[in-house]
Amino acid sequence: MDYYETSDQLLEPLLLCYDSLQSCGSGVLADGRLADLIRRVSTFGMVLMKLDLRQESGRHSEALDAITKYLDMGTYSEWDEEQKLDFLIKELKGKRPLVPPTIEVPPDVKEVLDTFKVAAELGSDSLGAYVISMASNASDVLAVELLQKDARLAVAGELGRPCPGGTLRVVPLFETVKDLREAGSVIRRLLSIDWYRDHVIKNHNGHQEVMVGYSDSGKDAGRFTAAWELYKAQEDVVAACNEYGIKITLFHGRGGSIGRGGGPTYLAIQSQPPGSVMGSLRSTEQGEMVQAKFGLPQMAVRQLEIYTTAVLLATLRPPQPPREQKWRNLMDDISNLSCRSYRSTVYENPEFLTYFHEATPQAELGFLNIGSRPTRRKSSGEIGQLRAIPWIFAWTQTRFVLPAWLGVGAGLKGVCDKGHTEDLRAMYREWPFFQSTVDLIEMVLGKADIPIAKHYDDVLVSESRRGLGAEMRRELVTTGNYVLQVTGHEKLSANNRSLRRLIESRLPYLNPMNILQVEILKRLRCDEDNHKLRDALLITINGIAAGMRNTG
């Protein structure tokens, strides 16, 4: 054999050596480094860690458009959902390839098809899940299953033998509030299809994985509404899978910041809906949080202990659901008021977009090459096309952390003014989800700094738009007051003294960096090609990010 293709092939001679050493009385040697190597191969295989693939649902539709047009079948994306499902199921049940080898497609479509071809060549031994971002329909999942099946048929024909490993598990990612509300219905529709249900049982041990996105839902509707919609979506997805006897693993697409679902790991897992953590859970760790949580061996072990403990507890002793329907109704009221307030500022105020560009270093972030992806999905100046990471990162730099609290004050005020303050206090004491949501907002409010945010406005924002900044700063104060009413604390983060001490200990270093950043931004906007100013801005950005911690 010239090389090893699978873990079993590599294990065979290692185990032979192990048995040979044991049989001739050299157990000390066998149980040393050789045993360690056997354990590593058994645990990590040939690849150490499997990589996930991720692509937007629209790109798959474009690929199928090109194929159906080439075959004179019409335009796939123009069909309604039932037409798409009928076509996809028919092709999935068939044995012939769909994509002709002679087809010529645009570069974007070729990239998608080439990705499926590489995935077929590597198989599930090297790759984990295929995540569909912006998923909204059952056809989005079946489209990937079809493209995956077709690529495996083509590669098997080229190799003259079956493709290595099995098919990748396909994971829909529900991100926007609208898609989260439909997530349970989409999973029910998928599992009602005989072909798909049999495929999940046969190829994935009756296990469905569903990813929920915290970033775009927060940018879409505000943190409070996103948290509540995520909670309800998880309940509905779990119920859908239970109806069909399918096991579920929820994959949480969290970021480091509170606005993107970040926060203490243990608290986050313990506040999930009952039944959503049944012995398994996936979660992303992004940006500086990877270094912060896993940068040193002892810290990495500690984080794994926290994950393991929280998952075991949530499985064996699930957190309490809302005690009564009234609590759910109150959450709906807070969510609706909060979302309305948030969107009226961010999406409906014509001055907001310009204010955002002036008051934050968002525009400059794109020039600094400090992110893994472009700051925008498309070349549009709208908030909707801005990725969630720069959206939150920019506000964190100014210490205003607006995405994590905007709208929350309006929601709490509306419900408290109707005489439900005591109900909210009872929810805070007895419902882990509500308590963790409010505690995280309180933590962010403790990190916000009104005088620093005002300084950015005074120096960088046009005079005609400073009133908007002043209005939002008043909203920040209102939010803090109503959070304190609900928690019963005398001041923000009163229940977390170590956090307060940490924040206060960083202020002598953070405040000068913010003052410097304001001055650098002012000069850089008059001299955009000045590389020394860009370097200086990057230093302040890194310094403020380190001081604020959960920023991305």
From TrEMBL:
Instruction: Indicate the residues that form the catalytic site.
Output: 219
Top-rank lineage group of the source organism: Eukaryota
Q: Do you know which Pfam families this protein is assigned to?
A: PEPcase
Quote the PANTHER family the UniProt record gives: PHOSPHOENOLPYRUVATE CARBOXYLASE
Protein name listed in UniProt: Phosphoenolpyruvate carboxylase
Origin species, per record, is: Solanum stoloniferum
